[in-house]
Design goal:
This protein is mainly alpha-helical. It contains five helices and two strands.
Length: 134
């Protein structure tokens, strides 16, 4: 079922958001100093292509540099990608069939705002639920 939902997602909105992340990643990789943001964009682009069955979690080993990098990201690229997710999420939630896809867009808002210090893991693994003890 996840594969079918991911294929529908890919056709209607995942491909467009992934292209946005790939464009932002390519622009970030042009300059040497912004390569970490470019790599984060490429990682999120893969997540935007196939989001069902995966989730983004906070990394515990991320330090202050990730926080500062997230502020820079938010100012230059994060706000625009977040606006794209919110716009598509609201538009998809207007239809009954599009509600799960709209919710997936809303699920991607935190990682589009602050991508550094996060990792994407499959759901159902202990890493997806860091606040539970296994």
């Amino acid at each position: 079922m996840k594969t079918l939902i991911n294929l529908i997602w890919l056709i209607f909105s995942g491909l467009w958001m992934a292209l946005g992340y790939l464009l932002a990643g390519a622009l970030c990789c042009v300059l040497v100093i912004t390569i970490p943001w470019g790599l984060a964009c490429f990682r999120i682009a893969a997540y935007a292509l196939w989001p069902f069955g995966r989730t983004a979690v906070q990394r515990h080993d991320a330090g202050a540099a990730s926080g500062i990098g997230n502020i820079v990201w938010l100012i230059f690229a994060g706000i625009w990608l977040t606006i794209g997710h919110i716009t598509l999420g609201v538009g998809l939630c207007l239809t009954l069939i599009g509600i799960p896809f709209g919710l997936a867009h809303f699920k991607m808002v935190p990682i589009s705002l602050m991508p550094l210090g996060r990792e994407i893991v499959p759901t159902g693994t202990p890493a997806a639920y860091p606040h539970y003890r296994w």
